């Protein structure tokens, strides 16, 4: 186990390193390195001013030198400073991460409950009317692009209600510190947007997995022993069917913690995804790299956790 | 996960293992002697939901092809702007659906119906071609990794892990910002999205097929690696390739629409569903629901039809239904 973890962490670090190289390369191949000083210097800037800005941002140094500078800072836990705001990337990420986190945690709770329960219902009553309805609804939300659902909810529950004088949901994110109840209300629509779109995957996954498990001999044995149907379903079947669901959950949360890009953009929530999109449009390299590192690290960690969890859950899996 | 796949696939390929709840009995005799391919197509043809969704897909394709006809019927070009009072109201806001503009007008006074018809072209082209790129690359890399093993396998498997760890949307937006928006860029970027996961699946399958006797036989007859990979192994992984292909199309369509929604897709004024939906946000406050609702419906119906059809294809090839949930 320890050897497995060490190896995976080492591989993860290599992956992260390659990703930073990739982002650096994209930035320097593209217009970013030229565009940033020009934008910063303003409309009427003379070539001298642009040159000075370039110099101050050290953008005229060779790429490898800048990269080394970046790695050196990173080894000291510093991700550098935003080109535009002079703010440290660490503090940008620190401000954005809690927003993404509160979005993802709330949505994850809703989607797991909805997805797993509907999947179980659907599998237990396989081929019944309720199964058909659940499967149909799941397919509907599975096909729904996140931004379409988000905008439809926004149109119905924000604009239409506001036109009728009801202000139930704020249109933009309200920080928890400013008003806890406002924070909660401002998150309801984003939570449901993300959750409904994701829950559909879990419904399908749970249904498939449960149907497989419920054909096993030990389920028949459990029924033959006279256990209650509820116990057979939740204790014997669901528990065994949970492995693929846990895998999917780990990976999904890992990906989303790096920024639920679309949901954040639709609801103008300044989380990691929104920050990233905004920085990319500005070519703010230090912030882009910061978000990408954080996002990729979340995926890498989620992968390791899922694999390790697999071994804990299923003794037949050997890690090496 | 990887352990289950080869097992499931063998059964899928054998094609004769009845799934849970499938009725055997009187049909058992008839099934004998049909090829797995015929069985799969027959299952698909008998699946009502798949056939209806196939009909919807054909309809959307026809709309895309005959978009100029739609324009001719309405008498409005895709980029033709109608100013107030024809296409916009006195305040310069879009008009609601009417007998003149069946789905209303957009922020520039253009006919939404005509633009939706033209927008189908981009969605379908990107959806299909990007999926072909993904599946093609994934299949080739998966074959190579699984067949050669050793260092090649390790390197390719790591590359796939690496790609899967990259936040797709961020990578896509960065690349488009650098290279500049356009159809080819979108195809490459979205094609990039899917291949690593396809590659993983194919690799897993090839790993088990490689050890089969008939591969050993081919090798002892003097077949080279290319022959073994493409003549002996490839036909045996074609079922998952087809299934993946059909499941990837809606994913690619959504990816294209999402990128356009974020403003890094097909540049305006080319009609595109994602850009139309993004643009509709600016007139929400005037209650212009039609600008959001109709392009959204077009997108949703398309992805839904492809998903139902994809599910049908999967069930037809793998009636046990455990393989590609």
Written account of the structure:
The complex is a heterodimer of chains A (320) and B (325). Chain A is mostly helical and 320 residues long. Helix content of chain A is 77%, strand content 0%. Chain A has helices at residues 2-29, 32-41, 47-56, 63-75, 89-124, 129-143, 146-163, 180-213, 217-224, 229-257, 261-266, 272-282, 285-313. In chain A, α1 (2-29) runs antiparallel to α13 (285-313), α5 (89-124) packs antiparallel against α6 (129-143) and α10 packs antiparallel against α13. The longest helix of chain A has 36 residues, at 89-124. With 325 residues, chain B is mainly alpha-helical. Chain B has one domain (58-317): MetI-like (MetI-like fold), CATH 1.10.3720. Chain B has helices spanning 4-14, 28-31, 36-46, 48-65, 67-74, 112-148, 150-165, 168-179, 183-209, 213-220, 225-233, 238-261, 273-280, 289-317. The longest helix of chain B has 37 residues, at 112-148. Chain B is elongated and about 80 Å long. Classes of the chains: A mainly alpha (320), B mainly alpha (325). At the A-B interface, α1, α6, α7, α8 and α10 of A face α7, α8, α12, α13 and α14 of B.
What is the first-to-last residue Cα distance of chain A?
7 Å
Under the CATH scheme, the architecture of chain B is Orthogonal Bundle
Q: Report, as a whole number of angstroms, the end-to-end distance of chain B.
A: 12 Å
Q: Per CATH, what is the topology of chain B? A: MetI-like fold
N-to-C order of helices and strands of chain B: HHHHHHHHHHHHHH
User: Count the helices of chain B. How many?
Assistant: 14
By CATH's scheme, which homologous superfamily of chain B applies? Answer: MetI-like
Overall pLDDT metric of chain B: 82
Taken as a percent bin, the fraction of beta residues of chain B is: under 5%
Number of strands of chain A: 0
**Largest β-sheet summary of chain A:** none
Helix content of chain B: 55-70%
Order of helices and strands of chain A: HHHHHHHHHHHHH
Main beta-sheet annotation of chain B: none
Largest interface chains and counts = A-B, 59 and 48 residues
- Contiguous low-pLDDT stretches of chain A (5 residues minimum) are none
Helix content of chain A: over 70%
- The percentage of residues in β strands of chain A lies in under 5%
Low-confidence stretches of chain B: 1-22
């Amino acid at each position: 186990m320890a050897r497995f973890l060490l190896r995976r962490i080492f591989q993860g670090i290599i992956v992260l390193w390659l990703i930073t190289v990739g982002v650096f390369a994209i930035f320097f191949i593209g217009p970013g390195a030229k565009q940033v000083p020009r934008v910063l210097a303003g409309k009427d800037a003379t070539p001298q001013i642009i040159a000075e800005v370039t110099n101050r941002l050290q953008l005229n140094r060779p790429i490898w030198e800048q990269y080394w500078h970046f790695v050196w800072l990173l080894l000291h836990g510093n991700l550098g400073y935003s080109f535009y705001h002079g703010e440290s990337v660490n503090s940008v990420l620190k401000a954005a991460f809690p927003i993404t986190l509160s979005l993802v945690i709330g949505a994850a709770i809703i989607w797991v409950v909805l997805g797993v329960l509907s999947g179980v219902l659907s599998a237990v009553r396989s081929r019944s009317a309720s199964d058909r309805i659940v499967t149909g609804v799941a397919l509907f939300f599975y096909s729904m692009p996140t931004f379409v659902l988000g905008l439809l909810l926004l149109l119905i529950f924000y604009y239409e209600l506001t036109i009728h004088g009801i202000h139930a949901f704020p249109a933009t994110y309200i920080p928890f510190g400013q008003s806890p109840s406002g924070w909660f209300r401002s998150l309801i629509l984003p939570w449901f947007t993300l959750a409904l779109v994701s829950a559909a995957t879990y419904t399908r996954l749970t249904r498939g997995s449960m149907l497989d498990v419920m054909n096993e001999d030990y389920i028949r044995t459990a029924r033959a022993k006279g256990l209650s149907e509820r116990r057979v379903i939740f204790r014997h079947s669901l528990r065994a069917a949970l492995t693929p669901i846990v895998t999917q959950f780990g990976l999904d949360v890992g990906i989303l913690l790096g920024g639920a890009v679309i949901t954040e953009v639709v609801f103008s929530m300044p989380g990691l995804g929104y920050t990233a999109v905004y920085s990319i449009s500005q070519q703010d390299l230090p912030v882009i790299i910061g978000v990408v590192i954080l996002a990729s690290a979340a995926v890498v960690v989620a992968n390791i956790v899922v694999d390790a969890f697999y071994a804990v859950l299923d003794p037949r899996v050997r890690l090496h | 996960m990887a352990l289950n796949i080869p097992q499931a696939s063998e059964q899928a390929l054998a094609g004769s293992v009845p799934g849970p709840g499938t009725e055997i009995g009187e049909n058992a005799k008839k099934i004998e002697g049909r090829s797995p391919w015929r069985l799969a197509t027959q299952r698909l043809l008998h699946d009502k939901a798949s056939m209806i969704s196939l009909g919807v897909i054909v309809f959307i394709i026809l709309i895309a092809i005959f978009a100029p006809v739609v324009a001719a019927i309405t008498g409005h070009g895709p980029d033709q702007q109608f100013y107030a009072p024809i296409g916009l109201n006195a305040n310069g806001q879009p008009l609601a659906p009417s007998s003149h503009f069946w789905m209303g007008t957009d922020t520039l006074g253009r006919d939404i119906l005509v633009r939706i018809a033209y927008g189908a072209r981009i969605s379908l082209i990107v959806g299909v071609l990007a999926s072909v790129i993904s599946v093609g690359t994934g299949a080739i890399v998966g074959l190579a990794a699984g067949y050669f093993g050793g260092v090649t396998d390790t390197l390719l498997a790591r590359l796939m892990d690496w790609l899967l760890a990259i936040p797709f949307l961020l990578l896509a937006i960065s690349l488009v910002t650098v290279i500049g928006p356009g159809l080819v860029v979108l195809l490459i970027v979205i094609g990039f999205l899917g291949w690593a996961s396809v590659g993983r699946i194919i690799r897993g399958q090839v790993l088990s097929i490689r050890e089969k006797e008939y591969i050993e036989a081919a090798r002892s007859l003097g077949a080279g690696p290319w022959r073994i990979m493409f003549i002996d192994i490839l036909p045996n992984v074609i079922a998952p390739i087809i299934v993946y292909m059909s499941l990837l199309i809606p994913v690619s369509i959504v990816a294209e629409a999402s990128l356009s929604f974020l403003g890094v897709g097909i540049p305006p004024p080319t009609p595109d569903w994602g850009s139309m939906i993004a643009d509709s946000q600016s007139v929400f406050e005037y209650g212009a629901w039609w600008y959001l609702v109709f392009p959204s419906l077009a997108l949703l119906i398309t992805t839904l039809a492809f998903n139902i059809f994809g599910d049908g294809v999967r069930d037809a090839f793998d009636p046990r239904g455990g393989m590609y949930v």
